[in-house]
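ok so i was messing around last nite and threw this chain in just to see what happens. nothing serious, just curious
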Amino acid sequence: MSKWKEYIFSDFVLVNPTVSLKKDEAISFVEMKDLEDGKRYCEPSQERMPSGGSRFQERDTLFARITPCLENGKICQVKNLKNGIGLGSTEFHVFRGKDKVSDTDFVYYLSRWTDVRDHAEINLDGTSGRQRVPKQAFDDLILTLPSLPEQKAIASILSSLDDKIDLLHRQNATLEKMAETLFRQWFVEEAKDEWKVEKLADEFDFTMGASPPGESYNEDGTGIPMYQGNADFGFRFPSNRVFTTDPKRFAKKNDTLISVRAPVGEQNMANEKCCIGRGVAAFSYKKDNSFYSYTYYKIKSLMDDIKQFNETGTIFGSISKSDLEGLDIVRPDEETILRFQNLAKPIDDKIELNETQIRTLTTLRNTLLPKLMSGEISVKTKG
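result:
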């Protein structure tokens, strides 16, 4: 801490630096939806002709300046930009390291530190629901920060954890794609003429969720985890965000979960016994509940039919128990189902193991970050 100095944030970091764009050439464009909480990197989802909005270059930090996106962790380092430059929503601030003062990777982690995020949130300006963090707010934030070599050492430690997390995310996406491809090949492309058309309820048991009384909810881990739908869903497994002491309906470990209220059709798998609210339904294979891989990919294959119910209702889409019971399915023979389950289960078990590692590494990173940023934990620098 002896070499740490006091800085005004906007003197330490380049905030919304100038970027030159070619007027007649399409450019990478990043939307708010391209940022995912907990993931370090984001990439452009499309290209657009130059226009107004935030401007940035490769590895700049995009910092959501609007509520509730800031509260939801919409902060990332951008990469894979065409020609190294990009354009984005007007709702981003752009941060970049300052020559001989701050390291660009360190700036990303600094922007995720609660001291920076909390300062931004208490300086939100504007009407309720559409408040924004003004650029001038960073002229009032004073922090004690390390030398450039120590910044790079801190960023290296945190980056090594994020790189492992990113690798596991990419591995899981590949594994799930493998299982989906296998399912499509066996049960769609090579479907047998003798397989009968039946109803979803003939092949699967399912439970429609019911919400516990509001006074039973808590966020301190008391009771059993409760899932209400898309807000709780992750890549494969939901996050423990809300708990209840008075559960009404349950899902078992490895049940397939889908959201049945807007948006209809988001999908996850339960990784423990849990309570399901009225926005969720849980599915298991009727003949053998342990066939969770077959169940997961079969339900996933029906998503186009299920998601059509997003268009129903006067305001919000929803799908009822009778709607689900009436969905047509093709019922394969038991031998083919068993063969698929035996091949897909090890894939899904590896995905679950990877997800457990991701959560462990994420917790470690989130624990280390404030300690490194505050100097509570010191790091050795080269030289």
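not much to say yet. Residues 5-145 form a domain with the Adenine-n6-DNA-methyltransferase TaqI; Chain A, domain 2 fold (CATH 3.90.220.20).
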